[in-house]
Structure formats: structure tokens, C-alpha cells
Amino acid sequence: GESVGLHLPTLSVQEGDNSIINCAYSNSASDYFIWYKQESGKGPQFIIDIRSNMDKRQGQRVTVLLNKTVKHLSLQIAATQPGDSAVYFCAEHYGQNFVFGPGTRLSVLP
Amino acid sequence: DSGVTQTPKHLITATGQRVTLRCSPRSGDLSVYWYQQSLDQGLQFLIHYYNGEERAKGNILERFSAQQFPDLHSELNLSSLELGDSALYFCASSPSGDISYGYTFGSGTRLTVV
User: Could you report how far apart the first and last alpha carbons of chain A are, in Å?
Assistant: First the structure.
């Protein structure tokens, strides 16, 4: 399928290692954040969310960390698998809609 | 399958033409959002409809318009198409007008203008 974001920053990790994807958001008034995963030829898929009154939230193999002081969000994927290869977007809820970051391409090496 | 249905999946058309993209939200969802995703850009918000009424507009060109029908499906109309309109167009839906609980995206329509 057509590739999204041909010039995106790329993170390459070895299968089984942990991955950390970072995102700087723009507005200190944003109150809700979501990480999405987009595989080639598909729409973005919800991974995990966090509200601004939290610093950390854990899901299955994924953890999101929020640092409001520096407006930074990170997604940690434990034991990265080939199926995790995709483009990852952070989105911040500000105003009446979500503003999406430019995305990071995660490439899992065998 | 996310439950959000977009048709067609692929569309190739010539410059100057007009096309209509269709979106059926998840069952029970009242809000529909349209996004454009170009090859070298992230997701750009176009417009939001809630229960038939326009709620918010983003970076939507005047050549583009949208509507949401009583059965809650939505159509995005793109006219006087230019090469730069080639992109993936995504529809997303949510249960209410409050998007604090995130969206569910469809698989998109890939528009190619030649």
C-alpha cells in the first residue's frame, strides 16, 4: 500500500527490545492525549490515551508518559514485535478537535 | 474492521473534476470527522459534523464541502480538483460531540488526481 509520511523520522529497533517514541505537543492547555498506530494502507488505530491529570498510564505492552512541564509525551512499547512496525502519531485534544503530530515510523529489525 | 466504513477505497480522477467521498460512522456514533493525510504531512483536520450539524471547521478549502445526512452518514465533496489534492482522506466517528474519548477511524479513501 501507499506509504504514509515518506520523510518521517524513523526509529529502528531489534525485535524483542523496548521502543520509545517521543512527541512534543504544542499547547499547554491540551487536556487529553492519544497515541495512534497506522499501518500501511490502513487508518489510524487507537493504542492508548492519557488525561492531563495523569503522568503515566499502562496498557498491554505499552506505556504512555506525560510530562506537562516540557509538553512532552512518550510511548513505550515493551518487547517490540514485527507487528509493531508502523507509523505512530500522538494527538492532543485542544479546542474542538485533535491536533496530530507528524508521526514517527517504527521499523522492527529481525 | 473498525466499524467506520469509507467508500470508495481508491479513486483516480482528472484535474478540474469533482468527486464525492462517503463515510458511514460506527453504529450509534453521532459525530463524523474528516481528515486529509498527504504523503509528506500528518493528519490535517478538515471538518466535524455532529448529528447533522457542522460543529467545527479546520483547514478545509472552499472547493471542499461536506454534509451529514439524517441517517448519520457523511459525504465529503471535493471540486475543481488539483494535483495537490491527491491524498488519503479519512473519516472518523465518535459517540457524541465531545471528543474527549477519541475517535475511531475508517480505512480511508485514496484519491489520486492526474
Answer: 22
- What are the chain A neighbours of B88 within 8 Å (beta carbons)? 2, 4
Across the interface, do A43 and B103 touch by the CB < 8 Å criterion? no
Q: Does B41 sit within 8 Å of A5, measured CB to CB?
A: yes
What average pLDDT does the structure give for chain B? 93
b/e string for B66-94 if b means 16 or more Cβ within 10 A? bebeeebebbbebeebeeebbbbbbbbbb
For residue A39, give the chain B residue with the closest CA: B107
Chain A nearest CA to B38, separation (Å): 8
Distance between CA atoms of B6 and A15, rounded to whole angstroms?
A: 34
Q: What is the pLDDT of residues B75-109, one digit of tens each?
A: 999 999 999 999 999 999 998 877 666 789 999 99
How confident is chain A (110 residues) per 10-residue block, as mean pLDDT? 61 97 93 92 91 95 96 97 95 83 93
B45/A99 Cβ within 8 A: yes
Shortest distance between the Cα of A93 and any Cα of chain B, in A, equals 7
Has residue B70 got a pLDDT over 90? yes
Q: Cα separation of A65 and A35, whole Å?
A: 11
